[in-house]
Write a structure and sequence with these properties.
The complex is a heterodimer. By secondary structure, chain A is mainly α. Chain A has 13 helices and two strands, in the order ααααββααααααααα. By secondary structure, chain B is of the alpha/beta class. The chains are: A mainly alpha, B alpha/beta.
Amino acid sequence: MATTHSDSETLGGESVEDFDESEQSVEARVGWRYTLAQVRKDPTAFAGFIIIAVASVVALVTTIDAVVFEYLAQYQVFAQFGVEKYWLAKTIWMSPTAEPAGTPTLLPPVGMENTFGQGTWAHPLGTDDRGRDILLRLIYGTRIAILVGVLATAIGLVGGMVIGAVSGYYGGWTDDVLMRLAETLYAIPFLVLVLAFIAAFGRSITFAMVGVGVASIPKFARLIRSRVVSVREDEYVEAAKAAGVRDRNIILRHVIPNSFAPVLVQATLQVGTAIIIIAGLSFLGFGIQPPTPSWGQMLSVSRNYMIQNPWFSVWPGLCILVTVVAFNMFGDGLRDALDPRLNN
Amino acid sequence: MSAPLLRVDDLQVQFFTEDGVVRAVDGISFDVREGELVGLVGESGAGKSVAVSAIMRLVESPGRIVGGHIEFKGETLIEVERGDDGESYRTDATIPDGELRERIRGREIAIIFQDPMESLNPVFTVGGQLREFIELNRDLSEEDAREEAVRMLREVGIPEAAARYDDYPHQFSGGMRQRVLIAMALACEPALIIADEPTTALDVTVEAQILDLVDELQERYDTSFVWVTHDMGVVAEICDRVNVMYLGEIVEQAPVDDLFYDTQHPYTEALLDSVPRPDETVEELNPIKGVMPEAINPPAGCRFHTRCPDAREACKTTNPDCRDVTDGVTEHRAACIKHDAFETTYEGSPPLETGSGGGFDVSLSGGETDD
């Protein structure tokens, strides 16, 4: 940027888009709009973003249908209108947990045929061992995957951020104690740690989620710490100190925002990992409990019917695959967009 | 004469590194009066920045203030004494950390840092940072602080201040950013602004603009300044009084005119010699020979004797303090034993063959001996 000749040169509304790509300074590569524009240029990352966006919307709608409506149904005001759990699903099609009488079990997808019958449009992806519609259960399973994946990551992110930032900012023995604790946690295999957590607190999706979150704290803490150690030496941090800003505010307003980019990438990738772990726990029976639909648990049930109807296993497996890959693609794209050295 | 606004007395800052103790600032004393612009000049590594950050107690580990007394408006910013056990500790007169942060930093004393490119947080808007700073130090509401921030931006000459309020630091040029930092420092109308080489990172045109701006603003707000620089030109332009530092010590203190026209210390002289002058055409500039020794193991005697053109045998053994050398005519102090104020054997001792080696320098000092 030609900057110093005259101050009036840089006058006027120079927005991020107005910069010529080749002349853009490294510092210009900040801000949400720029990052998103960058991600958009990367087809794989953009595809990942779209898949995540669609899955998130699906998760939101199904959460309203399952959780919010169940809660509202307790009240007479809403119950008189027929509000109940899976109200929306029932109104449009059928409940994801109902076992309709007369529907054949283990039907293949539409256009296929097996010993149980011919696939129909009534059940586009076939039915499960209890005659429930697989497509509908997959849709409702998205909720668990996204919600639990994101929440577990959020727990790890927040925990890791606090520990890592404090550790990196203060250094000294604070750093030693916190980091040795984190490394101790790191030394235990991830799944073992989560299983131990569930064993200690109880077999429920909440504890599975918290367990996955806690187990991922060290990863985030170490990542944040490594950034904070360099950011705390930046002059604006010293300037803030000289201006009389409290340590807490320096960490929150100056240190963390400037250390956040790599963490954001890690968090996106971590959501994918969390989804797999949670699905694995559901598969083992430690996660979500039937009849609530979840991909992992569907996969678990379907393995008994692998021979009779292999499609039953394929669908939930495919859902997990696509979602996790989408998070990874988006995460990779985000890393490229946030790291100026990888551009040009 | 009224009591000075800031008084630094025998300040010592040391860095405890693995290689040994670095005596970055080794017993410097100076003061700043109200409305005065005091310069702190010296080569890189002379300890200027460390000295000014010690004023606000911003020296970070492994550095520590191990001695001295800093007084500001009658309050003790720091007083460190050496105990019987040899450990230095803060005395009770030192104001506590919380109070220093709440009352002094930002409100009473502000710092403008060296690099305008790095001193603004890149993830927040310029206006937002300025507003936050004003809110913090002046107890204004958010809206009032915003108004004040825009006013300050206008004050330091940022065109269309209101429109640029929401810009990010990267959308500002270096000179504009330095203006913002000056606005930030002035915003709380502090009594003292410490400017740590604020124009070093800028080109000369912008530097001149900034210096003019500071001059003008200083007149209007009557703020005192401590101006750290290595540029003699800047010193001549804006400073009222000057302290010249070499290797952690102050070697000469004088009003700016006296420093330039009646230089008393060989280091200052050498420093002035090395500056290109528009009124003289020379084949080659005359830099100070050699490099500054490590503060970890400073030379015995006068610290400058290894490079000093006037050095003699006596300089190896005597480390002079900064004394009045003009019989009290002006406030002019220098730390060189060639002056009569020091009763030493300088006159009688033989000249020293120094690393400054150049024939020109040696013959010059030889000439003085013959007098």
